[in-house]
Amino acid sequence: MPQGELIGVISKVLQAEPKSVGINTECGAGPLKMASWSNGLTLVLQEKKTGNAQEWQFVGWYAGAPSGATPTLTTMAGVGIGSTRAELEGAYSVKVTQSTLGQEFSTTSGLYGLLDGTGKEAVITSLWSGMSCNFR
Question: Which of 69, 112, 130, 132 has the smallest set of CB atoms within 10 Å of its CB?
Fold first, then answer.
């Protein structure tokens, strides 16, 4: 979905405009544009050729801690920032590994993220899916 349409739809659903929109030129996949909201959601867009034009299109998302008292986002299974590893494993088939980012997990459905520890009470601190810009 092109940038204008996507940001318009998400802004309408969240009843807020993005708090920031910028381009990270240091990502392994090349420059990525990121639109972020105060609830912790960041949309990731990549410039792609469509016909004779270049346009920014949706390629992934990231969820981090919300600012203020904004409610956190969750997956359809109810897993989000602040959910425990036990809750994550109760909803998804999960593989957890130690990476340079910390306790990183992946699911068979394409959901990725970080935990703040190794035990069942470890808490999810970030989630993403699709193209990302993580420095390992």
Answer: 69
